[in-house]
């Protein structure tokens, strides 16, 4: 048998089919994998040093959403996926059962995104939605590993003009987006690992958010108290 291949056949057929079987002990690219995993550590340490702000974000977000405000979130590419992950946790749940909260990912509606991009240009795709959906007292969270995306910068400006709190979750700072927002958490790591750090940050915020909601609702009726 050829190494890494397995053969299959039957008593009624002489055809032999080969299928690839991965060699799980193959060390060819172990160095690259190890380097990638090692590069996660700076992202974790960067977030650990900002744990107070992560906690504060979760607490403030709970305060605002319990008061009837909403979260708007946006990003591009992988950052869009992570922004949508956060809004799903808020509309759904993170750990324990609780009330749903209003959270909108501005990139999630394909018809709106393509129409706005076609009619106004991609740089305006989030800013126009902020003007449509945002209200004073809401929170806009913008995710970007580079901190330089023009459409996010325009969204931040549109939000601040309307009294919407602006938060940035970025890669290394300072950068244009962190400077344009009211508050920022910057992950001091290379782009891929910073993006991994963003998911950890989102979960940390959700943990603080749920803890604050539970505290306000009382231990006997977790999260049941949206006014």
TrEMBL record:
Any single GO BP term: carbohydrate derivative metabolic process
One Pfam family cited in the UniProt record for this chain: SIS_2
Record-linked InterPro entries: GmhA/DiaA, SIS_dom, SIS_dom_sf, SIS_GmhA/DiaA_subfam
GO MF, one example: carbohydrate derivative binding
Domain SIS: 61-219
Top-level taxonomic group: Bacteria
CDD domains in the record: SIS_GmhA
Protein name: SIS domain-containing protein
Organism for this UniProt entry: Paenarthrobacter sp. AMU7
